[in-house]
């Protein structure tokens, strides 16, 4: 069995997954301490990971009915993400692995999101198109094998989840903004306002900065009379259209969607024919890291002791 850790942002995650991709345990401890700041505060995230990580690992093992003796590989997110947050996971994984002389598999966070599709039940086999849409990333990738992918489109500015979060802030909603806009949009008219969908952007890339500015001006113009539900519904419609249009433009028949934004109800309805991983596997989790680790070359003890986290995508 594989024990995996994921601490790239504000969720402290540990999972136990079999070599066949069965998830025996996937624990996600959301810190919930960043809401009042309207976004994740990196230093606070690191400190909370440090406080939570051992308990989350214990919880994952207990839930799986496993002990460290049952683990043959330790996996961890190496990057990209908040470097201080990543380091807590990397150091913890090194400690657990080194104590038992186990190999360690460093996993790229985005490869992890893609590998959520390889988990059972219903594992998806390449080739397929994958839309990764989260708070930090928005990418359209062609997955041709289990080990990698080719990026065919990416956001030129904000990530889709970031657009939801910033829009929610403009509408006076809480953080994270995606679920809040999703809820409010149900009471509004998505055609009330015409927001830009970034269609002017060439190729399969995305742009959400103009959309956010358009909302800012609308909120300013309308002031206290702003019909917030209509604004939320129209804003959400623009983000979903941008994502769905790009997916359709590829002509791909087999499509998977992962990342926190995959939880969006309008996106799920619009891409009903796509493979939509269970919500718990869409947002950040360690089961997807364990899944990716199955296809990574594990580093033997003690070579991984020199392993470092990386902040930016490589
Ligand atoms: O994948 P994730 O959990 O963490 C990152 O790696 O970023 O994604 C979090 C993002 C946040 O921006 C959040 O607002 C967005 O996913 N999100 C949603 C919904 N639920 C979460 N966006 C739209 N609709 C939702 N229902
Ligand atoms: Zn993520």
Brief account:
The chain contains ten helices and ten strands. With 314 residues, it is of the alpha/beta class.
- CATH topology term of the largest domain: Nucleotidyltransferase, domain 5
| CATH architecture verdict of the largest domain | 2-Layer Sandwich
User: Order of SSEs, N→C?
Assistant: EEEHEHEHEEEHHHHEHEHH
Describe the strand arrangement of the main beta sheet, using strand numbers. 3-2-1-4-5
| pLDDT averaged over residues | 94
The radius of gyration over CA amounts to 20 Å
Which stretches are poorly predicted, pLDDT < 50 over at least 5 residues? Answer: none
Q: Which shape, going by the Cα principal axes?
A: globular
Ligands: 5'-O-[(R)-(carboxyoxy)(hydroxy)phosphoryl]adenosine, zinc ion
Q: Which class best fits the helix and strand makeup?
A: alpha/beta
Distance between the termini: 28 Å
CATH class of the largest domain: Alpha Beta
Structure overview:
About 40% of the residues lie in helices and about 20% in strands. It folds into two domains: about 1-120 and about 285-305, Nucleotidyltransferase, domain 5 (2-Layer Sandwich), CATH 3.30.420; about 130-280, ATPase, nucleotide binding domain (Nucleotidyltransferase, domain 5), CATH 3.30.420.40. It has helices spanning about 40-65, 85-100, 110-115, 160-170, 175-185, 210-220, 230-250, 265-270, 280, 285-295; strands at about 1-5, 10-15, 25-30, 75-80, 105-110, 130-135, 140-145, 150-155, 255-260, 275. It is globular and about 60 Å long. The protein contains ten helices and ten strands. Strand 4 (about 75-80), helix 2 and strand 5 form a beta-alpha-beta unit. Helix 3 (about 110-115) crosses helix 10 (about 285-295) and helix 4 packs parallel to helix 6. It is an alpha/beta fold and about 325 residues long. The structure holds 5'-O-[(R)-(carboxyoxy)(hydroxy)phosphoryl]adenosine and zinc ion.
């Amino acid at each position: 069995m594989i024990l995996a850790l994921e601490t790239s942002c504000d969720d402290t995650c540990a999972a136990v997954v079999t070599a066949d991709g069965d998830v025996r345990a996937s624990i996600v401890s959301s810190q919930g301490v960043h809401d009042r700041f309207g976004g994740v505060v990196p230093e606070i995230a690191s400190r909370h990971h440090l406080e939570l990580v051992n308990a989350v690992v214990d919880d994952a093992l207990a839930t799986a009915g496993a002990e460290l003796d049952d683990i043959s590989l330790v996996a961890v997110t190496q990057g990209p993400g908040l470097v201080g947050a990543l380091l807590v996971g990397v150091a913890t994984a090194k400690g657990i692995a080194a104590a038992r002389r186990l190999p360690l598999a460093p996993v790229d966070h985005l490869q992890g999101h893609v590998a959520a599709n390889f988990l059972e039940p219903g594992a998806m086999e390449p080739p397929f198109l994958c839309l990764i849409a989260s708070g930090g990333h928005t990418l359209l990738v062609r997955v041709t094998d289990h080990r990698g992918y080719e990026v065919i489109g990416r956001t030129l500015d904000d990530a889709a989840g970031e657009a939801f979060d910033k829009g929610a802030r403009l509408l006076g909603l809480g953080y994270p903004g995606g679920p809040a806009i999703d809820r409010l949009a149900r009471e509004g008219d998505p055609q009330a306002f015409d927001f830009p969908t970034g269609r002017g952007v060439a190729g399969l890339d995305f742009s959400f900065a103009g959309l956010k500015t358009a909302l800012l001006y609308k909120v300013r113009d309308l002031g206290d009379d702003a019909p917030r539900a209509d604004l939320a519904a129209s804003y959400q419609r623009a983000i979903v259209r941008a994502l769905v249009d790009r997916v359709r433009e590829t002509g791909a028949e087999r499509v998977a969607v992962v990342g926190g934004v995959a939880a969006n109800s309008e996106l799920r309805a619009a891409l009903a024919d796509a493979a939509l991983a269970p919500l718990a596997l869409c947002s950040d989790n360690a089961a997807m890291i364990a899944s990716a680790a199955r296809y990574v070359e594990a580093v033997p003890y003690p070579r991984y002791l020199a392993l470092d986290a990386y902040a930016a995508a490589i």
